[in-house]
Amino acid sequence: MRISHPPALRASRTVTDPPAWAGLQRELFAAQEKAWRIFSGRYTEGDGRLVFRDRLGQGLDGRDGVDDFYEAFFNWPTLYLLGGSDDVLAAARRHWRGVTTQLSEMGMLLDGFERGYDWFHQGEGLLLFYGLCLAEPEDGELRELAARFGDLYLPGGPNYDPEHRVIRAPHNGAAGPRWGFSDADVSFPWSLALRPYGLPLDWIDEAAPFDDLAADPARARAYGKVMWERMGRGDTIVNLAATSLVANAYLLGGEQRHAAWVREYVDAWRERLDGREIVPDNAGTHGIVGEHLDGRWYGGHYGWSWPHGLPPVGSAAIIGAANAALLTGDRSYLELARNPLDAVLREAAPRRPAEVRTITKRWRPHLRGLADEPTLLAPMRRDDSGWFDLNVMPTQLPVALWHFSRDAADRERIDRLREASSWDWTAVHTQRTKEESGHEEPWYEYLAGRNPGYPERMLRSAADTCAERVAAIENDPVDAAVGPDASGIHDWQDRNPVVTEALLQLTTGSPQVLYNGGLAQMHVRYFDAGRRRPGLPPDVAALVSAIDPDRTVIELVNLGGAECSLVVQGGAFAEHRIDTAGADDEPPRPVGGPHVGVRLPARTQVRLTLSMTLHAARPVIATPPWEVAG
After folding, report:
1. What domain range includes position 605?
2. d(CA 621, CA 623)
C-alpha cells in the first residue's frame, strides 16, 4: 500500500564550506551533459541511428552485432535516473528508436527484438531498454514492448519448452530457436579473434589445433557440424539472463505469468544443480544435463569450458537467482548464485603473476610492480583436463551478490579475497572497460571504513575518464560521414563518455549493473519532488557511506540558492521498507514504507540515517508519491 505523503525530514545545517566530494559530483554531472552531446553529434544521425554505411547479417559472423549498436548508449538512462538532464533521457530514447529501425532494416531484428543470438550478448544489448523502462515506467509503448518481449519466453512462446523446462537453443529470440551458430555455414572457426580461447569440444575426433582448422575449410566444416549437433541445441546456463527480460515485464505490468515463469525456469536450473558439487552449464533438448555432450556437466555454449568460463557462468547464475529472489522473496535461490563462485575459489591458490599468461588487462594496473609477489589466482574454466585459465577472481561477481543479499557469509567471501590479494584494494585506477565498472574493491573498502578518501579520488578519476573519451571522439580518424565498417563497431563503446559507476556507488550505495543482462539493483533511489521526475535535484549532491540494513547513512548537500525537496526510495523497485529515518542527531522517526521525503533549504546539508528491511515489499517499477509533508 502506497503512502500518499511520505514522512519528511528537513535539513537544518547551513553549508558554509561545502565538502569537496559534493562539488566534484556536481562537476561530473555537468561534464557529462556536454560530453554525451559531443558523442551524439559525432556518431549519430537525425533519427538517432548510428552513422554506419556497412551491413550486419552477412558471412560467418552474421548473427553478431546487435548488442554493439545498443551498447553505445547503455548507461545514458542511468545518468538521467541519477540526476542527469531531461535531454539525456530524450536522446537515449531517440537513439534506441533509431538503432532499432537501423537494425530492423538490416534484418537483424524481428518486430523490434533480436532474431536470435546468445544471451551473453543479448543481455548486453538490452541494458538500454531496461534503463528506459526504469526511467519511464508509465510510458505505454515501453510497457507494451516489455510484455511482448517477455512473452517470447513463456509457455506458448517460440523459445521455451514447458514440458522439459528448457530454452530450446543457445541462440534464441524473436524468431524462436536459431539452431547452430551461423546461417551461412557450419564451419568453425568463424572469427580469428576466438583463437585465444582455444576450442570447445576438444575431446571429439574432429578437433584439431585452431590454426589447422582455420587453414582447412573441409576440416573446419567437419568440426563445425559436430559442434552444431552438440552445442547448437538445448539449454545453456547463460540463458538465465533471459529472466531479466521477463522480470522487467513483471516489474512494469505486474502480470503473474511473468513472475511464474521466472520462478519455474530458475527452479529448473536449481534442480540441475541438486546433488551435484558444481552447477552444470548445459541441458539437452529433453532437459537432461550432458544430453548432447556424452554426459558432461561442462561444455555448453558460453559455459564452463568455452570461451570465458566463470565470468558468463557466474554472472548468469547471479542474475537468474537475484531475479527469482526479487520476485518471490525466497532467499534460498541465492544458493544457485553462490555455487559457481565457491566452486572456483576451492581451486584457487597463491601464484606469482609473472608465471601466468592468462591474466586479463582488467587487472594489469592492480598488479603492476607485483609480478613476483604471489596473489590469489583462480581457474576460470573447466574441461576434460580439469580446471585451467588462471586469473584474478572477477570481484564484481561476489560484490554484486553481497550487495543483493547483504548476508554475512557473502561479505566473508569478499574479505577472504581481499586478505589473499597482494595488491592494494584502496587504489583507484583510471581505467575504463565497456562495462564501465572495475572499481568494486576501493568502493568496498570505503564502505568498510578503510578508504576515507575514496569519494574524491573516484569522482576525479571518473571525470578524467570522461575527458579522455571526449578527446578520443574529437581525434577519431574515422570519416564522420561514413562511420566504421563492421569490424569497428566496438569503437562506439570505447568512446562512450557517459560514466555512471562512480555516481551509482556514491549516490545510491550500489555497484554497476552486471553487464551481461542484469537489472539495476540499487540500495536507494532519489526522486526530485519539485520536478516530479527521477534523480537528484540539479544542485544537490548525495553520498552514501554505509549500506547496512540497520544503518544506511546518506549525506545530502544542497549547493544551490533555492529550496528543493526530494523523495528517497528504498531499492530500485521500492522493494526495501524504510523502518525508521533520522536527520543528523535527531531521534529516528517511524516510516514503515519504501519512501521518505527530505526538504533541503538553500545551501543546507543533512545526514540521513535509515534502518531498512530489505526485500520486504512486492517490487514494482512505478513513480513515487510526490507530495513531501512538512
Report:
1. 8-17+524-613
2. 7
